[in-house]
């Protein structure tokens, strides 16, 4: 909002016009008094005694006439008139002097008033200049304020937009928090340095989320006993199945080889391949059942000494979560562990060309 101040010196103009009118009146009065003084002076000269006496003597000399009583009476009246006029003249003169002094005093006051008026006019001009500067400053500040208000308005809009985004994100977060699945806590099981298994080895299978004991050692001993009693030297290719034992069967392949040394024939049986075949995929125990004191897992695990045995785990892809739990349990109980991952349809197999398990 712009405001302009205007100062109108109508009152000073009125006062100045009034002062000029008063001075005109005083000047007129003084002029009238001067005219009256001049008239009175003319009359005084007309009735001055010396002039009357001179005229009288001239009359006496010229005409040698005598003054009549009527003339003397007129002369007395003229003297009285002269005295009266002289007194009036002195009074008028005093009044003129008084008026003159008053006029001079009024002129002095008028000069002072004019000086004050000039000072007031200068102040008025300074005030107008200051008002103009103030208006310019106000206009400039108003523009700055308008720009500031526009900036504040834009900032408020940005704040409102960010608050809306924040509220939307908070609602999304709350929705996700309410609907998110229960978190699964994964325990980090450290893996020690690995080494090849040299001592006794126990075997367990992890499949379908269940753990079962694989009687591999029993099958190996049965195969050895089988060849000790084998007499069919005509059959050089052997394909036999042992079991089931603990719900596993063992199918193996072997070959018969003959060698001559000094007139003697030596028969050599070579083990070529063997695999453990479960009777079904549901054999074994869940992890919760396996940890119970009377579980089959705990019973079979007790057959292997912690100081000299390694537990080998055959792990299928569907049971890696179970592997973490079993590893943690075995490590806690100070067992060495070897892990052999298998594909879903791959059997548990052994052969002379195979590799040894790596324990840690």
Task: Explain what you see.
This protein has 360 residues and is α+β, with helices and mostly antiparallel strands. It is 55% helix and 20% strand. The strands form 3 sheets. Strands 3-2-7-8 form a 4-stranded mixed β-sheet. Strand 2 (200-207) and strand 3 form a beta hairpin. Helix 1 runs antiparallel to helix 3 (69-179). It is rod-shaped. Mean pLDDT is 77; it is low at 1-14, 47-52, 54-59 and 61-65.
Structural class: alpha+beta
- Helical content class: 55-70%
| Share in β-strands | 15-25%
The residue-averaged pLDDT reads: 77
Order of helices and strands: HHHEEEHEEEHHEHEEE
Record field, number of beta strands: 10
Roughly how many Å is the radius of gyration? Answer: 74 Å
**Low-confidence parts, pLDDT < 50 over ≥5 residues?**
1-14, 47-52, 54-59, 61-65
What is the approximate shape? rod-shaped
Strand order in the sheet with the most strands:
3-2-7-8
Cα distance spanning the termini: 87 Å
Query: What is the number of helices?
Result: 7
Largest sheet: 4 strands, mixed
